[in-house]
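Structure ticket #2291
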Amino acid sequence: MTASEIAAAVGGELHGDGHLLISGSVETDSREVKSGSAFVAMPGEVTDGHRFIRAAVEAGAALIIAERPLRDDEPSIPHIVVESGLDALGALAREVVRRGRDSGGLTVVAVTGSNGKTTTKNMLQVILEQHGPTISPVKSFNNEVGGPMTMLRLAQDTRFLVLEMGASRVGDIASLIGMAKPDVGVVLKVGLAHAGEFGGVEMTERAKSEMVTELAPSDTAILNFDDERVRRMSGLTDASVLWFGTENESGLRAADIETTLDGTTFTLFSDGADPLPVTLGILGEHHVMNALAALAVTRALGLDLRQAVDALARMPRAERWRMELLRPASGAIVINDAYNSSPDSARAALQTLAHLGRSSGRRSWAVIGEMAELGDVAVEEHDRLGRLVVRYGIDKLIAVGPGAKAAHIAAEAESSFGQDTVYVESATEAQELLTVLGENDLVLVKSSLSAGLKELGDTVGEQDKE
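Resolution: structure written out below.
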């Protein structure tokens, strides 16, 4: 796009050469700028991007989008002045996606849900890239900045754009939908993740439903039949609905689910097709629903299901620090799942730990850190987690940090003897307790990212590894 076209797209005032052609990346971090990039300067939570305009130009930026004109002491470079850098980023993303659609080859798939977004996004990447150039978010770029940044990676030959849509308030997903206008919208689950920010699960349901309310009749809403709150969303959309789940009413259904230390298997039943055996190298029965959602997208787009199943079998893991299996030299097995945690995902991880411990004859350890952003229900949900550890028959619990202390207290109260649970203040103390691990041990490290346990999982999982 030329500088003039970009200025028109973002509703800004251009200073400099309007014929300048911008074909590089769009960046909000000056450290990511390369030759030919456009740099969007805007205030952030920690610092202000306007402070780094000079650094961006020195790194090769060809165009600046800023909330003020460049000063005399700053480099002389074409720039566009806008009222809001964030709004400009979204407007530019909307225009880039529109151009991709007008070229006739772009299909947009969007995924939301309280849990499973990143895993499902990764599954869709490996499935769709077999059929053409595919772009999906880096890590969990799913918010008001990360979403547009993913859209702005589109190239002229991109066939599939997969978007992960998160939300911290009602309206966030609607804003992203307005930019991307997806052809397929997926809702995985409505749970208590981020309930503190939303003000309760009812508001979470309202926020997630924004995925389907703006879909056109020609679009497809892919919904989890097993989740009552997601099931209700079928009445809010004009799009055709494709169900996935474990119930007979689901268009794509999983049965015969089995989880071992080698992964997860199930049989896929799809209307009008022969049953297919599915093998995932990813631990945890809960990932079956993510796989079903990805396979439902495959069917909605008219792509080959068997080819998609083969692609899923080749995935070595869901994502770094998400049910990641590590095998230290001690012979123990460590499952590092300390990137994200909520009541639903923690319960699913504990169920997997308990099942794998029993089936493999190993002693099971749950190392639990805080589940963040739960607001008023935080103590109650950590209490419930501690009781689940005991009820699932997990052998040892280590609760780490003040936010997780309620889990220890509840487990101690639930258990007939308290030596199976311990509370420590820090990951360092937890690591010391885990030095006794041997070939008969199976350890789950589960927490939100803010609890800082992912490094503990890596350390224990790699200790003494040759």
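Closing remark: The mean pLDDT is 92.
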